[in-house]
Amino acid sequence: MSIRHGLLALLERGPRYGSQLRTEFESRTGSTWPLNVGQVYTTLSRLERDGMVAQGGRDEAGHELYTITDAGLAELRTWFEKPVDRTSPARDELAIKLAMAVGAPCVDISDVIQSQRRHTVKAMQDYTRLKAQALVAVESGGSRERDDVAWLLVLEQLIFQTEAEARWLDHCESRLIRLSALAPTAPASPSASPGASPGASPGASPGASPGASPGASPGASPGASPQAATAPADPADVTTGTPGAR
Hints:
The chain is mostly helical. The chain contains eight helices and two strands. It is elongated and about 75 Å long.
């Protein structure tokens, strides 16, 4: 947020003192970004150092007034004419939080998303209610109409932001569900021998012929007794899921 240029814009309308600038800034933005007097005077000192404002005497109540200089006017014009730079976006805490939650132990990212969605929807409802109040104020044509219009624009920007955030949270949830469905699953039969040929019977040794009975040795002749062919295998001979183990 550019407090610097906001104060220059207010000073363009005439000399102001610090507390007055703070009040007018908050009135213009509906107190969406509240300032304290310390921030205002610190910014004024820097603007004075840079030659963009100058002290212009005192008012009847003894408040020290500041006025905008030609350099300040040139800076303000440039600010209004130049687009806001989006190539280096400000850090977004929610985006950072979700990025860190991915794969974090003991964190259910779905719960994080659901909690944020409830808060975002509540904020959207609050902004919409305030927008209705601002519209009433604008349509009434009161003495603060300029500030009411400015506040209305700020509120509408906040509403658009929260709507976009809600859509993004829905997208994140859908994306995570799709990625979870694509995650590799464990083998269905962990007891299968690593070298078993496709189509071999369960439990067959790697070198067994396709028609050999389960448990038959690789070299068993077709005439082997049925009792030998169907006898239960010794547990010590069953192939385990460990590669290379017998």
